[in-house]
Write a structure and sequence with these properties.
Elements lengths: L3 H8 L13 H11 L13 H12 L1 H17 L10 H8 L3
């Protein structure tokens, strides 16, 4: 789903495009309809198979998650994705020193 977070991060030169994947609206509706009436709703209800895999990874394979995030972030820095992002200037400088 598109949400205002995509607009606000793009305005700050920290676009989530290609990083934060859009979830299908019908998947979100199905997840809410399934979780809402439960006596004890589950935490971390996912809307896609990929979301379920990512949630499993975060919960059970934190070191792999850390490496995946670090590799993705480094790639985005190298590609110039944060160019002009004042809030990311420090980390971009630090990453540039590692090249």
């Amino acid at each position: 789903m598109r949400s205002p977070i995509h607009d606000s991060t793009a305005a700050a030169a920290l676009s989530l495009e290609g990083v934060s994947r859009h979830e299908p609206l019908d998947g979100a509706v199905d997840a809410v309809l399934h979780a809402a009436p439960a006596r004890r709703p589950r935490r971390g209800v996912t809307t896609t198979r990929r979301g379920a895999v990512e949630l499993f990874q975060v919960r059970h394979l934190p070191a792999l998650t850390d490496r995946t995030v670090a590799r993705t972030f480094a790639g985005r820095v190298r590609s110039g994705a944060f160019r002009g992002a004042e809030t990311a200037a420090g980390v971009v400088r630090r990453r540039a020193g590692r090249s």
